[in-house]
Write a structure and sequence with these properties.
alpha+beta; 5-stranded mixed beta barrel; elongated
């Protein structure tokens, strides 16, 4: 063999050896890389963190729960421009390659060599899915190798459309938006299905650097990036020149889709959240993408929140002025600007603003809010007396001199009463306001189904998340009496039974003290009908009834109605000394409009998974508590409470309404529960740290106006309806003595009785017998002694 041939053979052999070595090296590198590869099979069951959506009954949005704001959508639920724009920006050969684009990798390799470090990745969309879900974001050739291997394998398990769907739902767009649906809602206030070409192109440019291209903060940079995407689409001939020009010139309006979370019905939403976590755990609630339909009616909830807020503000004003919330500095007053600067078109009638007092005179004050000077007349300060819980505001003259309330530099809350016009010298007119320390709650439910239509748990959810509707156990006072009287009706009493309203002394041996209960008015009224005792909320008659039927009968009845608390086994239980929540008391009251059975309140109607499968569907939970006859009699007597007793404020609704006020000792708690056959509403008012609210801050004054304001707004949604009289009830007219009313009776009441229990002796018969009262009446005054 010639020397030349030997050299050629040697070179060929060397090259073959190098090829074998290279192949061996590649094989060794491959096996080294695959040893620590994570499993990608979980991608075949893609379950990213998704937003849980809570809606009201009618499908309107109540709020969201999430850790990552992501809404799962399929490709066919996106605008056709969305996928094209992203492919043009990130991977235009996506549907041709097998997970790895060799040409793109080579281009990136060359660029990195020139740069001296890793600047480009050349990753396909499949590789990006692998990187985001299985690997780290570390820039290294080792990670790129693993990424390429996994991408190739993934494409054998998932279709191209499935991989693209994962990608478009996974990527981060900035502003807390994950996935194209969340991005469409965040930047354009619409769904991904409704995106235009221009909008889709802008979104497709964001994932490269979401903060840098944020259209809210950097609209020019966002537009440049959008044009790059449109240029790519034009170069690829995915759009025409005309479409390109239209998209480039399309005005973009950046706006976020409204999110009412924690603004409308925040206490309702929080209670739904608590119940969901108890059912499924936190991870499912915050990442599971559930769709939850609540029993809430936004029409009810909005007015309930407003009625409670207004009632608490009115309550705090009756107690007087606590003083300014802060003091402005001289520099702030001299600068001509205080607080937030809002355009006038954004201000609304009744809106509260913080204002600094510039000067004060007897007739009012001049104040500064934003960069505006406003007048605050003394007429808006009439309520601002020095607080004195021992004296009701009724007995104190209105403030007539603004200098007794305000001084220069005071920072106060104020409401916008009038906008500038010729009648007020071109200045705003503000009214003095005060945030309440008092708290309260409102619950409104459909007694037929148990649906809680509205639940308000306090003045401000931002200030306190404690829910007074579901978490505050307080003494209901006289609001407990209908439960006592329902037990009495099943233990020998009728609406016409007569008891003495006179002094009682109770020896409490357990606590070694003497208890002398009183009526609210500190008066005694003598022989009193059971009807009148409930209508006028007479404590002493209620105590005597409790003595006769026994405390156990009252507690048994309360428990049968569903009240869940520890009941004191003494006569005080008859006056509502056992603490209950508002929601629980409303549940017990459902027996009266329902004809004897109770229904449990429900806030959640159904729950569906992210894939639309039903996980939970609620059913009405009812239980028998009292007879239909007892329920009807109590409802009828509670209608009398509204027409002739302590619930008189509800008369303004001009339709049949039953109700009962409640006030605990020293006006510490105020209640009103009112209902019709179609709607039951309860209100509670009181301080979180139990203390007197002030003289005459009763259920009638503090709670009933809140009920009335709310019901005025919603009654128009219902047809007027009275309680249906069940079989076994007879209606009889009786005198205040509990006798049948004759034709000559000067005063009488038309009352319901269980058949066979109605009075049989007429007042005329009694007078004909020499005025002698029946035996039951002869013993009345003996109860005093």
């Amino acid at each position: 063999m010639s020397r030349g041939k030997k050299i050629v053979a040697w070179i060929v052999g060397l090259m073959a050896l190098m090829a074998v070595a290279a192949a061996g090296g590649m094989i060794a590198l491959y096996f080294w890389a695959v040893q620590e590869l994570p499993s990608f099979k979980k991608l075949t069951d893609y379950r990213p963190p998704l937003v849980t959506t809570v809606t009201a009954q009618d499908g309107r949005l109540l709020g969201y729960f999430y850790r990552e704001r992501r809404f799962l959508v399929r490709l066919d639920q996106m605008s056709p421009w969305a996928s094209k724009a992203f492919l043009a920006a990130e991977d235009d050969t996506f549907y041709q390659h097998e997970g790895v684009d060799v040409r793109a990798i080579f281009r990136a390799f060359v660029a990195n060599l020139r740069a001296g470090d890793i600047r480009q990745g050349g990753s396909t969309i499949t590789q990006q899915v692998i990187k985001r879900l299985l690997l780290s974001s570390e820039k290294s050739y080792e990670r790129k190798l693993k990424e390429a291997i996994l991408a190739y394998r993934l494409e054998k398990y998932l279709s191209k459309d499935e991989i693209l769907t994962i990608y478009l739902n996974q990527i981060f767009f900035g502003a807390g938006a994950y996935g194209v649906e969340a991005a469409a809602r965040t930047y354009f206030g619409k769904h991904a299905a409704d995106l235009t070409l221009a909008e889709a192109a802008l979104l497709a440019g964001l994932p490269k650097a979401p903060s840098h291209y944020d259209p809210y903060k950097h609209p020019e940079l966002a537009r440049l990036r959008q044009k790059y995407v449109l240029d790519r689409m034009l170069d690829l001939r995915w759009i025409s020149r005309k479409q390109y020009e239209q998209a480039v010139n399309e005005p973009l309006v950046y706006q976020s889709m409204p999110d009412p979370s924690w603004s409308i019905g925040p206490y309702y939403l929080e209670e739904v959240r608590r119940q969901l976590i108890a059912m499924y755990g936190e991870d499912m609630v915050y990442e599971g993408g559930l769709t939850v339909r609540a029993a809430c009616s936004l029409d009810h909830q909005i007015v309930a929140d407003e009625a409670l807020k207004n009632g608490l503000i009115a309550s705090t004003k009756r107690r007087g002025w606590r003083g300014p919330v802060a003091a402005a500095t001289s520099a702030e007053l001299a600068g001509g600007v205080f607080g937030d600067l809002q355009p006038e078109q954004d201000l609304k009638q009744g809106q509260w603003v913080k204002a600094a007092v510039l000067k004060v005179e007897e007739s009012g004050a001049q104040v500064l809010f934003g960069n505006r000077t406003a007048d605050m007349p003394v007429a808006s300060m009439g309520w601002a007396r020095k607080p004195d819980p021992e004296v009701a505001h009724d007995f104190v003259k209105d403030i007539a001199d603004a200098r007794k309330v305000l001084k220069k530099g005071d920072v106060v809350w104020a409401s916008i009463q009038e906008f500038p016009d010729k009648s007020n010298k071109g200045r705003f007119i503000l009214g003095l306001e005060q945030e309440p320390e008092i708290e309260g709650a409102l619950v409104s439910m459909d007694p037929k189904t148990g649906d809680v239509l509205a639940l308000s748990g306090g003045y401000s959810f931002a200030r306190s998340q404690f829910n007074r509707a579901t978490q505050a156990a307080r003494q209901p006072g006289s609001a407990f009496k209908p439960i006592v009287y329902s037990a009495a009706l099943d233990n020998g009493y009728t609406a016409a039974s007569v008891e003495i309203d006179g002094p009682i002394t109770y020896d409490d041996k357990e606590h070694n003290k003497i208890w002398r209960p009183q009526n609210f008015e500190n008066k005694f009224y003598g022989p009193t009908l059971l009807r009148t005792a409930l209508v006028k909320s007479r404590n002493l008659v209620t105590i005597r009834v409790a003595q006769k039927i026994g405390v156990d009968a009252i507690i048994d009845r309360a428990e049968a109605l569903g009240l869940e608390t520890d009941f004191p086994r003494d006569l005080s239980v008859a006056l509502g000394s056992a603490s209950v929540t508002l929601l629980n008391l409303c549940q017990a009251y459902t027996a009266f409009p329902r004809g004897g059975s109770c229904v449990k309140p429900r806030l959640i109607l159904d729950v569906k998974s992210a894939w639309g499968d039903t996980m939970y569907a609620s059913r009405e939970e009812t239980y028998d508590a009292i007879s239909p006859q007892t329920a009807y009699i109590i409802a009828s007597l509670m209608e009398e409470v509204v027409q002739h007793g302590t619930g008189f404020r509800a008369k303004v609704l001009h339709r049949p309404v039953a109700g009962k006020t409640g006030t605990s000792n020293n006006e510490q708690d105020a209640w009103f529960i009112g209902y019709t056959p179609y709607l039951l509403t309860g209100v509670f008012v009181g301080f979180d740290q139990v203390k007197p609210m002030g003289q005459y801050e009763t259920g009638s004054r503090a709670a009933a106006p809140i009920f009335v304001e709310y019901r005025k707004h919603v009654e128009g949604n219902y047809t007027e309806q009275d309680f249906e009289q069940p079989p076994g009830i007879v209606m009889t007219r009786v005198t205040p003595d509990g006798l049948l009313a004759g034709p000559n009776a000067k005063e009488s009441y038309f009352l319901p009785f269980k058949a066979g229990t109605q009075p049989t002796q007429t007042a005329d018969d009694a007078e004909g017998a020499g005025g002698q009262q029946p035996s039951s009446g002869e013993d009345l005054f003996r109860q005093i002694f």
